Amino acid sequence: MPTFPMQPDPARLAQAIRQHHWLGRLSAPLQQRLAERLPTETLAAGSQREAWSGTGHIHWLIEGQVDLVNESGDVVLPLRAGDWFDAARATGLGASVCLANTDSSWAELDTVAFEEIITELPLLTHLFETSSARRTSNAKANTAADPALNLMTTPVRALIKRPPITLPPQTTIREAAEVMRDKRVSSVLIVEQEHLFGLITDRDLRNRVIASGMDTGRPIMDIATLAPMSIDVQNPAFDALLLMARHNIHHVPVLDGQRIAGMITATDLTEQHSTSAVYLAGEIYKQTGVEGLQTSAAKIRRLQQNLAAAEASAYSTGHIITAITDAITSRLLQLAELRLGPPPVDYAWVAAGSQARNEQTAKSDQDNCLVLDDSYDEAVHASYFRELAQFVCDGLDACGYIYCPGEMMAMTDTWRQPRRRWAEYFARWTGQPDPKSLMLTCVFFDLRAVYGKHELLEGLRAEVLHRTKGNSIFLAHMVGNALTHTPPLGMFKGISTIRSGENKGKIDLKHTGIVPIVDLARVYALAGGDTAVNTHDRLTSAAAGGAISEQSARDLRDALEFLASMRIQHQAGQIRSGQSPDNFMDPAEISNFERTQLKDAFQVVQSLQSVLSQRYKM
Fold first, then answer.
1. Which is it for the CA torsion 605, 610, 612, 618, positive or negative?
2. What's the pLDDT tens digit per position in 93-104?
3. Which candidate, 376, 387, 378, 352, places its Cα nearest to that of 366?
4. Rounded alpha-carbon distances, angstroms, from residue 377 to 253, 392, 449, 452
5. H or E stretch including 97?
6. pLDDT exceeds 50 at position 146
7. Are 546 and 500 in contact (CB under 8 A)?
8. What own/partner pairs with CB < 8 Å and gap ≥ 24 does 526-531 have?
């Protein structure tokens, strides 16, 4: 079925808005903004397209008649000109196809547009009992919350405000300072024959020139950051946020291919989006002790609360929260090296579990390990790395990342080994898949280097994937292990809650909701030799490689996003109430519609678990 691009049609929309019995009541400036910004789509009579996935956006049928139809061909929602409908609700009703009975067109109202409308016409709120509408109301009530995030859809190009300010390498420091003053910029790019060599910032002038008494007649290359990190104009602004947060930088050159397109700063992002992650990361790198890091880490809960109120996706939230964990981990390692001296051999500090997958929330323990260079000599080097790992793991615990109950941390001797020993571990686990080996593979296959020499991990992962790809016996054991985590569905497909204990009547959103999807995606990655670590990315790769159908991959990604978002919102509510966040939610807390979606998500997972168990029979 064809898809149709959404394009603005201001003149047509302006007239439709004026004539609409609700929108016509809006102020003239808002009507004009909506007419210029809202994307529209058309469908010829007799044509059809895939129904919308559960985006949470509101659609307004401007003209025509369309039917939303399920896979059996039954009409689940007939729509006529003037009707509004929620894409998530349509998905929940089972709609898979949009069929146009007459020439039809509609407009899409994202969260920002919907919020603007109900600000002027609050009476419309009651028409949309969706989680999107409720979250919009929550965001308005929370005056401290960040503005709605569009980081995943806004290209970096849109943030560039002026042509790049460039200077040749032989420019003197004094001349560069005069240009920065006259142009009123905080940085300039150093360019020769259209190639980017480096950049200098006002901070460089302050710290490397004035504070040290350097001669301002020297060339700017003497104080420049050479070969700076850059980003492409087509990348989402979200990537720029993560780049700044992870590497403690506030200026990023923007490239269009090899051509220099401009510069963006943390301030540019601030004007459009929440970049508290950037500033929190910057604050973290300034800390000189664990006590200061504790203070910074305490702000993570507030950050998650703001992201939830701003309706950031679970995918985005996981990456942002994890970027802060990475920053805390890196700073602890820097502090450890300051105390102990330079490391005697190369090493990679490696995150495991949810941190490795970029899927953390404010409720996380620590899973990590150390991969040491093969020149490591235990008799000579063991004491250094034992103290380093102990300092970092203790520091993470002090910052709220509690010790792993299974002691899968770098402070444990077993998980602080040279690369050759790690290769032996994985060879044994994949060759003799007993229950303990399978459990360890689940933990240590999800790995990502956070600090140090990343190459130590990259080669190791390649060897592991070579061993697992097509290894049907090992994969069958992995599937059997994955099926120990099943969705909480009863005999008649109803939601089954915990029967006893302190969480009686609740469901575990993590272990019976999200973990089963994580397990499925891991099996697909092991089977296909896929290097992706993030669960969403693994599912996308699995579909591209044919391990799973495109439709099944979309279903699992949507289920993951829904369950993870529900977990984030649940934890944000607990934080707002002064409680410690957890993963246990009472289904009575959510609407009937959301319970239906929850059940549908569980059924998707259960169905695909069944398919995988048939494919890899023991």
1. positive
2. 667 788 888 988
3. 352
4. 42, 21, 22, 18
5. strand 97-100
6. no
7. no
8. 526/445, 526/465, 526/468, 526/469, 526/474, 526/475, 526/478, 527/468, 527/469, 527/470, 527/475, 528/469, 529/465, 529/466, 529/468, 529/469, 530/465, 531/461, 531/462, 531/465
pLDDT at 6: 40
Residue 145 token pair: 């919350």
- In single-letter form, the type of residue at position 539 comes to L
Checking if the pLDDT of 367 tops 90, the result is: yes
Neighbouring residues of 585: CB distance < 8 A, sequence distance ≥ 6: 506, 507, 509, 566, 567, 570
Question: What tokens were used for 189?
Answer: 């790019």
Tell me what the mean pLDDT of segment 373-394 comes to.
97
Q: In the block, which residue shows the tokens 């697909």?
A: 524
Q: Taking CA 572 as the corner, what is the angle to CA 566 and CA 574, rounded to the nearest 5 degrees?
A: 105
HSE toward the beta carbon, residue 413, CA cutoff 13 A: 4
In this predicted structure, which of 109-123, 409-423, 487-501, 543-557 has the lowest mean pLDDT? 109-123
Query: How sure is the predictor about 53, in pLDDT bands with cuts at 50, 70 and 90?
Result: low
What single letter denotes the amino acid at residue 353?
G
Q: What are phi and psi of 44, to 5 degrees?
A: -75, 155
Only one residue has tokens 């142009």, namely 183
Query: SS3 for 297?
Result: helix
Written as six digits, the tokens of 383 are 């004491």
CA quadruple 499, 500, 505, 509: dihedral sign: negative
Burial of 562 (0-12, 13-18, 19+ CB in 10 A): buried
Query: Rounded to whole angstroms, how far apart are CA atoms 540 and 266?
Result: 31
Q: Which two tokens stand for residue 446?
A: 């999800």
Is-contact 327 284, C-beta < 8 A?
yes
**From 232-236, 406-410, 475-479, the region with the lowest mean pLDDT:** 232-236
Q: How many CA atoms lie within 13 A of 556 on its CB side?
A: 30
CA separation for the pair 225, 245 (Å, rounded): 18
For each of the domains in the chain, give its residue range(s) and CATH number, in order of start. Answer: 7-141 (2.60.120.10), 156-266 (3.10.580.10), 313-461 (3.30.460.10), 469-618 (1.20.120)
Q: Which residue has the tokens 């032989």?
A: 170
What span, in angstroms and rounded, lies between the C-alpha atoms of 430 and 473? 9
Q: What's the distance, CA 493 to chain centroid?
A: 31
CA atoms lying within 13 Å on the CB side of residue 498:
15
- The secondary structure of 513-557 as a DSSP string is IIHHHHHHHHHHHHHHT----SHHHHHHHHHHTTSS-HHHHHHHH
Do the Cβ atoms of 277 and 324 come closer than 8 Å? yes
In sequence order, what are the beta bridge partners of 605? none
By C-alpha distance, which of 334, 330, 337, 375 is closest to 351?
Answer: 330
The rounded distance, in Å, linking the Cα atoms of 47 and 124 is 31
Angle at 8 between CA 75 and CA 562, to 5 degrees: 50
Q: What's the pLDDT at 537?
A: 92
Beta strands in 329-443 (DSSP E): 347-352, 368-372, 416-418
